[in-house]
Amino acid sequence: MHRTSAKDQLFAAPIEKMGDFTFDAHVAEVFPDMIQRSVPGYSNIISAIGMLAKRFATADSNLYDLGCSLGAATLSMRRNIEVDNCHIIAVDNSSAMVERCQRHIQNYRADTKVTVIEADIRDISIENASVVVLNFTLQFLNPDDRERLLAKIYQGLNPGGILILSEKFTFADETSNELLIDLHHDFKRANGYSELEISQKRSALENVMRPDSTQTHHQRFARLGFSHSETWFQCFNFGSMFAIK
């Protein structure tokens, strides 16, 4: 039986000195509530990660969940894999997230082996991979590090392997970009967030989350050698893509 997560009220009261957003124990405690109320289509993306893993996982290969947080994508893959001797490697640099992720993995019994690692995803070796997931992770890396990480993923993917990348997007047309931002804020208001919460969280994130455009992502995939890429899901300025080697 899963314990209901605490309600996200981290930005409900005025914060005198706003620091940068960090994935600490406070965030980990409310993360399921935060993500469901903040990211449109999140549950659809998690479900589809499992569907894609079912299609692309090959026997005796590794699957990676880079920036695994509490393990939602890891568990979705694990529930759907139907081939033998797969190993899921879940990585996060937040000790609070890793601790809770390990707990969730232990509570769900399945044949597929899962290893949860506390580390910087930029330091992880990618080897013999059939599936790699970056679920709202790349946007938190320094822009200079993104192509290097994706190049390493490409090299570590087996032929026919898939990268699943979920991100917040920006758009070149300013009017469209602002409208999609406003619609996202409407989504958060509809889920019970106040104007203060929306404003303070946006301030906390502005230095640590720098999204790319969909065009930038697809151009990068092509430059690195991926044969196919597509945006398979989008709701407002959030979405998910795949790239196939």
How would you portray this structure in words?
By secondary structure, the protein is α/β, with parallel strands linked by helices. Helix content is 42%, strand content 22%. It contains 8 helices and 8 strands. Strands 1, 2, 3, 4, 5, 6, 7 and 8 form an 8-stranded mixed beta sheet that branches. β2, α4 and β3 (113-118) form a beta-alpha-beta unit. α2 (42-56) packs across α3 (72-80). The radius of gyration is 18 Å and the shape is globular. The N and C termini lie far apart (39 Å). The relative contact order is 0.16. Keywords: S-adenosyl-L-methionine, Transferase. Residues 65-161 form the Methyltransferase domain.
Notable characteristics:
single chain, 245 residues, alpha/beta, 8-stranded mixed β-sheet, 8 helices, 8 strands, 22% strand
What's the topology here?
Blueprint: H1 25-38, H2 42-56, E1 62-66, H3 72-80, E2 87-92, H4 95-107, E3 113-118, E4 129-135, H5 143-156, E5 157-170, H6 174-190, H7 195-205, E6 212-213, H8 214-224, E7 228-235, E8 238-244
Parallel strand pairs: 1-2, 1-4, 2-3, 4-5, 5-6
Antiparallel strand pairs: 5-8, 7-8
Percent of residues in β-strands: 15-25%
Q: Give the number of helices.
A: 8
Overall residue-averaged pLDDT value: 86
Report the biggest beta sheet as strand number plus sense, adding barrel if it closes.
Answer: 8 strands, mixed
Helix content: 40-55%
Low-confidence stretches: 8-16
Total strand segments: 8
Shape: globular
For the record, give the distance between the C-alpha atoms at the N and C termini, rounded to a whole number: 39 Å
Rg measurement, Å: 18 Å
- Given the helix and strand composition, which structural class is it? alpha/beta
Write down the secondary-structure element order: HHEHEHEEHEHHEHEE
EC number: 2.1.3.-
Family: Belongs to the class I-like SAM-binding methyltransferase superfamily. Cx-SAM synthase family.
Function: Catalyzes the conversion of S-adenosyl-L-methionine (SAM) to carboxy-S-adenosyl-L-methionine (Cx-SAM).
Subunit structure: Homodimer.
